[in-house]
Design the sequence.
């Protein structure tokens, strides 16, 4: 059995996609739905089974598998802004005796004003797809390029 077929079988097991639908040019995440922990498991299995050095893939992981198109740092920034605006809104609401409803309204306004400029500033990248053929080539080389 060829290495390519073995890899396609591993992908079929991991993804639940029938083997006949997995081709050399199939994209792992986009076409076959392998992402997140499933992708980590798949590449770990490939690395262990074929002794492939995936160091470069792990270092560049976020180029291929993004969280909703925004890098994780973007989510951390959004969370920090929401937390800061919540603190400010509830402190100001308490100081001005606006009550909980007033503080929530202030928070919504502050958050909207703070997040609006980020809509264009946060990097929204499309992931670089990984194809079955690239995995087969990495196995043949013994390392990811």
Sequence:
């Amino acid at each position: 059995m060829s290495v390519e077929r073995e890899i396609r079988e591993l992908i079929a097991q991991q993804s639940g996609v029938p083997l006949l639908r997995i081709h050399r040019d199939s994209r792992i995440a986009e076409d076959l739905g392998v992402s997140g922990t499933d992708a980590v498991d798949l590449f770990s299995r490939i690395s262990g089974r074929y002794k492939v050095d995936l160091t470069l893939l792990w270092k560049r992981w976020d180029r291929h598998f993004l969280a909703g198109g925004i890098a994780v740092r973007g989510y951390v920034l959004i969370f920090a802004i929401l937390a800061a605006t919540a603190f400010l809104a509830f402190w100001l609401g308490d100081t001005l005796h606006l009550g909980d409803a007033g503080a929530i309204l202030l928070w919504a306004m502050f958050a909207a004003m703070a997040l609006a400029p980020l809509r264009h500033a946060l990097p929204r990248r499309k992931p670089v797809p990984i194809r079955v053929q690239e995995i087969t080539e990495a196995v043949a080389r013994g390392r990811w390029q």
